[in-house]
TrEMBL record:
GO molecular function term, any single one: oxidoreductase activity
Gene3D superfamilies, alphabetized: B-lactam Antibiotic, Isopenicillin N Synthase, Chain
Organism: Glycine soja
Keyword Oxidoreductase carried by entry: yes
Protein name as catalogued: Protein DMR6-LIKE OXYGENASE 1 isoform B
Domain of life: Eukaryota
Keyword Transmembrane found: no
InterPro entries: DIOX_N, IPNS-like_FE2OG_OXY, IPNS-like_sf, Oxoglu/Fe-dep_dioxygenase_dom, Plant_2OG-oxidoreductases
Amino acid sequence: MKTFQLANESSSLLSLSPKFILPEDERPQLSEVTSLDSIPIIDLSDHSYDGNNHSSSLVVQKISQACEEYGFFQIVNHGIPEQVCNKMMTAITDLFNLPPEQTGQLYTTDHTKNTKLYNYYLNVEGGEKVKMWSECFSHYWYPIEDIIHLLPQEIGTQYGEAFSEYAREIGSLVRRLLGLLSIGLGIEEDFLLKIFGDQPRLRAQANFYPPCPDPELTLGLPVHTDFNALTIVLQSQVSGLQVIKDGKWIAVPVIPNAFVINLGDQIQVPLMCFSRSFSPFSIKLMHPEINLFQIYTMRKYKLVYLTILILLEKRLDAHKFNVQTQNFCA
């Protein structure tokens, strides 16, 4: 197994030290994970409509059902060129592969910093913290110049060019998805986009999960839900992402040039009065993996505004978007 050294570790990760080992009741049960079922896969190229009735679109119907039953779905034929995704994945992989003395310059425990490399922890009984088997790099989308000058010289230009192109494509995809979600709610297509306004919070996060010597004892990320509105996930060639469906963990397979879409709490919370199911998720470790998250978040006062408008919208069908949220550690 290839060894890997985290930015804030003094030696390579050859074995699990106690700080990574979860209590028995928190450990992943990998033998119980099923791959027989998974989240829906939706082809965005299907634009069949019934006359002028956009709500009859097969895409809208599938997205509505996926949000109702899972809160997650994968999309294919989304219009983002594969080379753009590959270029972005190569850039972030090259960053994580830099020597720890270089990536260590980005490491911080100060989460108020806009650009940072950090670790997740899980609070366990007794007040102790267990370190997750992962390393996370996060920054705001713009301005890209503020990010580049903080990166090691070897990666700055490559990363800046790749991310600028990738962010433009993802921004267009997010606007399209918000339109489809609005139609699925039975309201105007630009409803959610107007609520988010011109200044949503846009954050990129890349998580690296090194080769794990004993994946039965630890997690890459704790079980959690996303507080934000929408998360767009690009997986590497190895799958470790899992979601809960009907009390059982199911694996999310890697599909070439596909994105995993997670409907976050900010959209789900206003719809709780129509709720039925929701899927928290986690990262289970079998092989080295990188996931790239593009996170779309509305400002706090917008959440209150959205809640009021949703509840007042007379056309909202109580049978649509039956999702609910519950509190998991993040």
